[in-house]
Amino acid sequence: MKYKLPPLQPLRVFESVYRHGSIRKAADELCLTPQAASQQLKQLESALDVQLFERGARGLAASAEAQTLYHYVEQGLDALSQGLEAVRSHHKAAQFHIQVSPYFATQYLIRSLPSFTKDYPELDLRISIGVELPSFDSGDLDAAIVWGYGGVDHLDETPLLEDLKVIVAAPQLLAEHPVETAQDLPHHRLISPLTHNSLWQDIYAMLGLEPGGKHVSPMLLHTHDAMLQAVLSGQGVGLLSYVDALSYIHSGKLLAPFGAELLRQLPMDRTPKFHLYTRRGGGERPIQASFRQWLLGQLRSTDFIGYATRLPQG
């Protein structure tokens, strides 16, 4: 059968715009500019000679034609994705590529890998290190472990571990500029992850501090190790992951002016976590399912994690 179809990209843009109800969110998901996404949508409307969306006070409103089309486009893209994944799987059955957050890789994953790889002696395992959520469009990435708040609706998302933080500072810094009450915090440079988060804002709210008052400019760093070095060298008050924080507190190299357990009071939805992401709608390979089950099994152990997690243990 000879198919009379528009190019694939306008259909992908339409599916994403319909699902999000927003050209900007669709553009972000597809790594396009909003202008390019809008142009792709107009190209599809021109090919069909119908208007698919109307702009209103509350954003985009899908037309009846768009509602009909979405049903078929969604099924078609899912089928195409599954077909491509089936072909890829045939040629890379023994390969598994995962991108991992640097802290999770060094603290949890790498040291425990032998208990997973022993069952796959022929596995071509490839681990890349990265902080940001990667694109799965190239097809060679099987999974990613990323730090953040979750809610990525175009990928399958599995919460793995809450990243419990501790407020810490170097003894020499606190000797010169003590932190005896919450009101002392705004006088210090606050060290925080560069990746989008609201940790210090949420901590201020929890401690009853006003966020808009006079304060020292923050320091935002890309990795946990960089934050650790900044705190150790007395450059500010920082947030470190629980296991590392306790190690340096017990050695006397850092102090926790509010105690090590304070941030357990943050609600779970305001506590960043490590999440496992895989492609949605592409058909899960057996190696992906085995890796997820193995990793969740490891993270059920308090001894392995280093502290009691508040995540449900299934």
How do the SSEs run, as a string of H and E?
A: HHHEEHEHHEEEEHEHEHEHEHH
The CATH class of the largest domain is Alpha Beta
Structural class: alpha/beta
Compute the gyration radius: what is it? Answer: 24 Å
Biggest sheet, in brief? 5 strands, mixed
CATH topology name of the largest domain, in short, is D-Maltodextrin-Binding Protein, domain 2
Q: What is the helix tally?
A: 12
State the total count of DSSP E strands.
11
Can you give the helix content as a percent range? 40-55%
| Structural domain count | 3
CATH architecture of the largest domain: 3-Layer(aba) Sandwich
Sheet-strand content, in percent, reads 15-25%
User: Span between N and C termini?
Assistant: 48 Å
Q: Any overview of this molecule?
A:
With 314 residues, this protein is an alpha/beta fold. The chain folds into three domains: 83 residues, Orthogonal Bundle (Arc Repressor Mutant, subunit A); 105 residues, Periplasmic binding protein-like II (D-Maltodextrin-Binding Protein, domain 2); 105 residues, D-Maltodextrin-Binding Protein, domain 2. It is 41% helix and 18% strand. The chain is built from twelve helices and eleven strands. The strands form three sheets. A five-stranded mixed β-sheet has the order 4-3-5-11-6. Strands 7-10-8-9 form a four-stranded mixed β-sheet. A two-stranded antiparallel sheet has the order 1-2. Helix 1 crosses helix 3 and helix 2 crosses helix 3. The model has no long low-confidence stretch (mean pLDDT 90).
